[in-house]
Write a structure and sequence with these properties.
Keywords: Repeat. This is Secretion-regulating guanine nucleotide exchange factor-like. It comes from Scleropages formosus (Asian bonytongue). The protein is mainly beta. It has a domain of 189 residues: Methylamine Dehydrogenase, Chain H, CATH 2.130.10.30. Helix content is 2%, strand content 39%. A 4-stranded antiparallel beta sheet has the order 1-2-3-4, with no helix packed on it. A hairpin with a 4-residue loop joins β9 and β10. It is globular, with a radius of gyration of 19 Å. The two termini are 13 Å apart.
């Protein structure tokens, strides 16, 4: 693992940035790893046996280890007991854990209601179940200070106030929709006629992929990541398929302010913020997008790219993940 390591989140037993790939220090059970995830300053791994290992920044208890001390090597999360972990998603300073049984647990900061646990005033170092989610959960996503979940009955739930300030500025004098301000899971309206299968989250935006291959986006569009002319989208808006050759999307991933999607033919598209090379492709000096409203979007080179454009080098990629 390599990159920023100021809190020991790479698992190398020290807290200095790493510029070349190095093997993280952790004792893994037989079978290896199934998944890994990174947050603002912490990391999490899931083993093939469904165990959760964590390391890094822990000042808000985001590692779920029962304490708030920083950890620089991967440690097994004993707080989960015998629960088998299916998915983990790391926000800025909180963590969502989805078990094989469809239960969601959360730990870390709850300053913005991002844990979905209104009874927790500040933070928790123990992973606690979200009792408000009564249905079996299929997928979770942690943003900067908000969270999402998809249930087996096709509902998409959102909680955390991380988007509320931007929503207030963009929508004033209109009222802010409840799903953008709720401190516990709130059903997101506008997805009744589709079947959601996956959600992902950026710093201040939300993404839902349906079983039919459609992508719905809402939240902040500051970096052109929603493919629209509006600065903020309060409710799920369908991304025009013609922007990706009319193909259905089979997988989608989100960074803090950019998106990557894979289509049915194996093509990979990216759009949004690009000043650090996030899109994996060059951004032309001027890009315009004709959107359904008839407006034109123009963005500056090296900053944002609101048009999904194919990343030729990634054609045929097995999956898109961060």
């Amino acid at each position: 693992m390599q990159g920023a390591n100021s809190h020991g989140q790479l698992g190398h037993a020290y807290a200095e940035d790493v510029y070349e790939p190095r093997v993280a220090r952790c004792e893994l059970p037989a079978g290896g790893l199934r998944a890994l995830c990174g947050g603002g300053g912490h990391s999490a791994l899931i083993t093939e046996a469904g165990q959760l290992l964590v390391c890094g920044q822990n000042h808000r208890g985001q590692l779920g280890l029962g304490h708030t001390s920083e950890v620089t090597t991967f440690r097994l999360c004993f707080s989960l007991g015998q629960r088998s972990v299916r998915q983990v998603s790391c926000g800025w300073d909180f963590t969502l854990i989805l078990t094989d049984g469809g239960q969601v647990l959360a730990c870390g900061s709850n300053t913005y209601g991002q844990l979905g646990l209104p009874q927790v005033p500040g933070h928790t170092a123990e992973p606690l179940p979200l009792q408000a989610l009564k249905e079996h959960v299929l997928c979770v996503a942690a943003g900067l200070r908000h969270a999402l979940a998809v249930t087996c009955l096709g509902g998409v739930y959102q909680w955390g106030k991380g988007l509320s300030s931007q929503a207030k500025r963009a929508l004033s004098p209109q009222a802010i929709p409840e799903h953008l301000t709720s401190k516990e899971p709130c059903l997101v309206p506008g997805l009744d006629d589709v079947t959601p299968q996956r959600v992902v989250a950026g710093a201040a935006h939300c993404v839902c992929l349906t079983t039919g291959g459609d992508v719905f986006l809402w939240g902040s569009n500051k970096q052109g990541q929603l493919g629209t002319t509006r600065s903020f989208v309060a409710w799920p808006a369908l991304l025009d398929r013609t922007l990706m050759g009319g193909e259905s999307v089979t997988d989608v991933w989100s960074g803090w302010a950019h998106l990557v999607a894979k289509t049915e033919s194996g093509r990979v598209f990216s759009w949004g913020r690009s000043d650090y090379g996030q899109l994996g492709r060059a951004v032309s000096a001027s890009q315009s997008l004709r959107v359904p409203s008839g407006d034109s979007v123009t963005v500056d080179s090296g900053l944002v790219a609101c048009i999904p454009v194919q990343v030729e080098a990634l054609a045929g990629a097995a999956q898109v993940r961060g």
